[in-house]
Amino acid sequence: MANPQDGQKKPIAAVVYNPIKVDAEKLKASVTSAAEDAGWGQTAWFETTEDDPGQGIVASAVRRGASVVLAAGGDGTVRAVAEGLRDTGIPLCIVASGTGNLLARNLELPLTDLDTAIAAAFTGEDRVIDLGISEITRADGSTEEHAFLVMAGLGLDAKMIKNTSTKLKKAVGWLAYIDGIARSLPELKPVRVQYSLDGGPQRALSVHTIIIGNCGVLPGGFLLMPDAEPDDGMLDVAALRPQGPFGWAKVWQKVAWENGVLRKSALGRKLIDLSKDARDVTYLRTRDITMTVATPQEFQLDGDEFGEAKTVRTWVDAGALTVKVPAGS
């Protein structure tokens, strides 16, 4: 095969992979073959560690001149690599390997076809999407800033993640979160949240959980935020506040039935328009939201727990990340 890079420096790819989540030999064989077919140079390889899940590694890959960075691992690895690539213009290629694969599902990227997922790094097209950025303030006043790709959450969903068994996740995948919810319910109490949208006036809301989304699909394919798009320059907010003995049933009806079934047809959408909005689920849209709670609450980003937060400011960094998608998709 003719080498399109003859007479000039060949581009190189970098692979950031979680050795616990991937078959390294199979991954290396597929990447090496795809790079050679595309006429690229020798790929740079980086393993994630507990101390560096991806951000520092990506900085090294950028310094080496990587033209694309492949992230092979779970949602935590993909999130960390994306955070490192924020506003660099260097594209991310996702090689789905974890339990949730949330961004891959939302972008309809290959989940089980390793070679197709990897080929996108070398022959795919660029898709520019937004990143969510959260500044977390702890009870002691210290702050941290992190990016997320899909969703951030305060309250029940963060407790659920904290209480989900890692062993069970390996055994049954996303269904393990049901066990996490069951473990979280005894601790569950409404949380009074003071919030402000786009720097506007303070408002109060009593919720069991509040989720901020850059994308709308949850594990298992449940559509929580039907209007969320990863490239619209906006964040969607879902506040779950079940009321009365059938409150959670109404939340489930909204997510599983209305969002997941009725919205797929014109007749279904008409039925939604004619029905009364459930007070148990409140939707908001914003570019910037600040939330403060009286008692620090568990906080999560893309399915990873980030400890307890007193105040969280979250905003959209529009067009901050380029993702490789298969050609023609």
UniProtKB/TrEMBL annotation:
Cofactor needs: Mg(2+)
Q: Which residues form the DAGKc domain?
A: 8-138
What molecular function terms (GO) are annotated for this protein? kinase activity
InterPro entries in alphabetical order: ATP-NAD_kinase_N, Diacylglycerol_kinase_cat_dom, Lipid_Phosphate_FormReg, NAD/diacylglycerol_kinase_sf, YegS/DAGK_C
Keyword entries, A-Z: ATP-binding, Kinase, Lipid biosynthesis, Lipid metabolism, Nucleotide-binding, Phospholipid biosynthesis, Phospholipid metabolism, Transferase
Report which superkingdom the organism of origin falls in.
Bacteria
- Family assignment from sequence similarity: Belongs to the diacylglycerol/lipid kinase family.
Q: What is this protein called?
A: Diacylglycerol kinase family lipid kinase
